[in-house]
Amino acid sequence: MADLQDDLRPTTAAGGLDDLAGSYPEEAVVAAESYEPVSDPDGEPLTRAHAILAAHPVADGYNGLPWALKRLSSYDLELGESIVDTDVPRLRSGHVGLLFWSLHLPEGLDGDRAVGATLEQLDLAKSVVRTCDEGLRPACTAGQVADARNCGRVAVLLGPAGASAVGDSLGILRQLHVLGLRVLTLTGVSWASEAGLTRFGEEVVREMNRLGVIADLSGASPQTVRRVLSLSRVPVLCSRSAARAIRPHPANLPDDLLAELGAAKGLCLVPLTAEQTGPTVRDVADHLDHIREVAGAHCVGLSGTYDSGAAHPQELGDISCYPQLIAELLRRDWDEADVALLTWGNVQRVLRGADFTARAAQQRREQSTATIAELDG
């Protein structure tokens, strides 16, 4: 228990992590190979968009396909399935290289029911990947994501899941990690609430760092966001957040939090939903422009939110439509380097940062035995 206040700042011998939250070692930064000019700058925007995406595919930060498939008695994602927004042909048309599969649950599930429902979704997600092995490949690390891409497959990373999936147990968190969970949303539980993180919530973040589970702060209170940004040695992300200055949705981030997220090298994944970003592709591009200006090009990514029940902007109706969005950004004079960061490089940086920090932390810190009763009781 003496280690409970350990903030995961390793010694220099463990890899120089003292300033990891603000300065990553070379292997945790976007590699030089992640961007090379690939197209004629005088070409048509949509043609250029396809060329850029062929080299720097989309890492889509939120996709609800596993839950959507629960209502289907049969499906064939490799041939094509029109009743959902996501299938293998459209993933290829949209140049998607990585999907984060959401394991979020309907409202009202908590305690043992939430844990059980999350386990069922994990089982379903793995079954879906197995049946689509020509198009999809499971991945838990940045290296496995790269391997899937090199094999011509779309990598599938499990998460985000809601914090209720963990209940009040670090042991459950560890077992979910063993089963493949890599992103956890820190909101909606007693230890991560509108009031911020409790002492047990802080210990959850430390254990997530040790495991390599990334914190998702979409929907979290400002107090929780700021405490996680100061505590986590792993870059965090917001899986479904746009700019509140443009559209005042509660899950969107105000400029002060966007700036703090950018300073901490976190990542804001902008959702392609009419409710949060607006009804047109131009509205989505406005959010991307604004976040890039406020937080930096290293802070912005994409979150399709397809098959989540959300309505999508015009021209972005399913997961094949990403080239339309990139073409709009090219019309706004986004350079190819920033587009490459937006679609692929920024997510890879966050994944590598999580892997690097977990390897270092596991060499110096045993798994936590803390309980919520001991810390918050």
Automatic annotation (TrEMBL):
Q: Which InterPro entries match?
A: Metal_Hydrolase, Pept_M19
Keyword Protease assigned to the entry: answer is yes
- GO molecular function, a single term: dipeptidase activity
Q: Where is this region: Disordered?
A: 1-20
Where does the signal peptide begin and end? none
EC top class named in words: hydrolase
Query: Which keywords accompany this UniProt record?
Result: Dipeptidase, Hydrolase, Protease
Q: Which Pfam families match?
A: Peptidase_M19 (PF01244)
Q: What is its EC number?
A: 3.4.13.19
User: Which protein is depicted?
Assistant: Dipeptidase
